[in-house]
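Lab notebook, design round three. We kept the backbone fixed and only want residue identities now. Task for the bench partner: fill in a sequence for the structure below.
Input structure tokens:
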């Protein structure tokens, strides 16, 4: 699991792919990690395989795979059939099941207000994901606050539009950022 954290840190921009038509561009970019924020049970395995054949780590957003439930059997299916490097989810119980089947897990939570911040931190402490993703990623002060309150690697995601946003998130303590903005995938 620590190896995946190092892969993420080695190039701290993650391509967040919302549509398969953007996948080839993500594969051509310098990113080491791709977050798949789309898919269904029929296509996701082939897409994950393609990403891995191109030498990149593939993470699937378990909540967004059409036709897949949110129980332990679904996490076993992801681990044994789809075979990504890890999963992303907003659900604590999905993170728990992913951990039980040996998947690297990234728990997403949204910073909408101070209650959301406290709830997110408490959920992370209970579910013990491999990493967390804080959205929106442009709230650099709050990203730094999360980093200081948990011992889990933090990824900043959402609304990151520029190199300056990337630098600010990393300075706040995030190990990486995730972005769907394709121009950011090609930053050096």
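Proposed sequence:
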């Amino acid at each position: 699991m620590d190896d995946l954290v190092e892969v993420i840190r080695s190039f701290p921009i993650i391509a967040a792919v919302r549509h398969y038509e953007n996948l080839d561009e993500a594969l051509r970019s310098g990113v080491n990690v791709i977050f798949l924020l789309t898919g269904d049970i029929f296509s996701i395995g082939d897409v994950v395989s393609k990403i891995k054949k191109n030498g990149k780590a593939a993470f699937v957003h378990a909540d967004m795979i059409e036709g897949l439930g949110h129980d332990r059997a679904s996490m076993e299916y992801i681990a044994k059939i789809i075979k990504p490097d890890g999963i992303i989810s907003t659900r604590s119980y999905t993170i728990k099941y992913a951990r039980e089947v040996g998947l690297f897990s990234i728990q997403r939570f949204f910073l909408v207000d101070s209650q959301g911040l406290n709830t997110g931190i408490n959920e992370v402490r209970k579910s013990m994901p491999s990493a967390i993703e804080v959205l929106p990623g442009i709230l650099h002060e709050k990203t730094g606050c999360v980093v200081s309150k948990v011992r889990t690697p933090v990824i900043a995601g959402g609304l990151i539009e520029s190199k300056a946003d990337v630098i600010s998130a990393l300075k706040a303590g995030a190990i990486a950022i995730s972005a769907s903005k394709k121009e950011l995938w090609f930053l050096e």
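Keep this in mind before ordering anything: DSSP finds nine helices and eight strands in the chain.
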